[in-house]
From TrEMBL:
One of its GO terms (biological process) is DNA-templated transcription initiation. Belongs to the sigma-70 factor family. One of its GO terms (molecular function) is DNA-binding transcription factor activity. CDD domains: Sigma70_r4. PROSITE patterns: HTH_CROC1, SIGMA70_2. It holds the Pfam family Sigma70_r4. It comes from Sporomusa termitida. It comes from the Bacteria. Residues 50-70 form the HTH cro/C1-type domain. This is RNA polymerase sigma-35 factor.
Amino acid sequence: MLGTAPDIVGETVENLCEQERLNREIHRLTVREKWVLEMRFGIPNGSRKTQRDIAKILGISRSYVSRIEKHAINKLGKTLAVDEQPPK
């Protein structure tokens, strides 16, 4: 069943807020971490690349791309989780 108009608008606003938070936090990553995530997830143009493609572009191994990607995602996850903590 489709959501009501207020539900859809609320979800859209929430998604936009999350997108803004993510964009702010991405700038805290190293240049290489940022490049890997941008290419991997198609940020901002939607053109996703495989780890193998990224490895060729950056001149590194696919397994190293995987480690960079995992580290960057973990770093973002920790930062975003801390930001979600209610004030004490």
